[in-house]
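Protein modeling request. Please complete all fields; requests missing the sequence field cannot be processed.
Requester role: graduate student
Desired output: 3D structure, token encoding
Chains: 1
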Amino acid sequence: MGRPVVREFIEYVGSLRPAFMDSIQGATAEEVQLYEQLVGRQLPPTYREFLLAMGHENGGTELFVQSTTDVRQLIEVYRTEVQSGETVIPPRCVLMAIDELEEHEVFLEGPPDEEPRVVLGAGGRVTELYAESLGKLLFRYAFVRDGMAALPHHRYYSGGSARDRVLPKVRDLATSLGFEPLWFSDSLAFCGQGEGASVYCDQMEGRGLAFKVTARKEAEAEKIGAEFARRFLLDPQTLPKP
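Delivered output (242 residues):
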């Protein structure tokens, strides 16, 4: 049996935000079975766990901007739009979320017995990798949304070249400064934990860097942020406190 990553995610978020536990609602086993029938293949184990725990209400878990992961709406899409040909599912993919802006769909890609990649798609094809696995994406979200928010001082930066993949260099700098890479880091996002400070950086395909640091002391957040900004040509940004 695989790692119960969704349960661990729920316990982690609940420890930081207790109201979260009362704001999620799972799908029924019958709904999950029906979705599998409509999809025409077995759902990946982590995704089945996600649906049974959070398939109706996900407690505001915004894994994707302005989208829904409610399995009842996904079932309706397969019953209507997929059957009519209006929505085309790429090969080896399962629809996971509906973009309310209708710019793209979110899919889980890969064999049903393996941890799927999270990808974006449109027009029946995969257009972009979003996360190397659903489990890593869940914990990446929780780390940024709740874990980093536990520290009071925040700095945000963005910029750099969209042509050059520099995330490995970000990891190298972070580890040289004492930040331990967390297990849910992947080729698109780095999450690091240090003594009294945390860092997060992502570089999605064809884009520059987005960097965030939080720290117990304001001077430390400023110092760490300035070093990354200098090394990777980032500009400070003003974003709302999570």
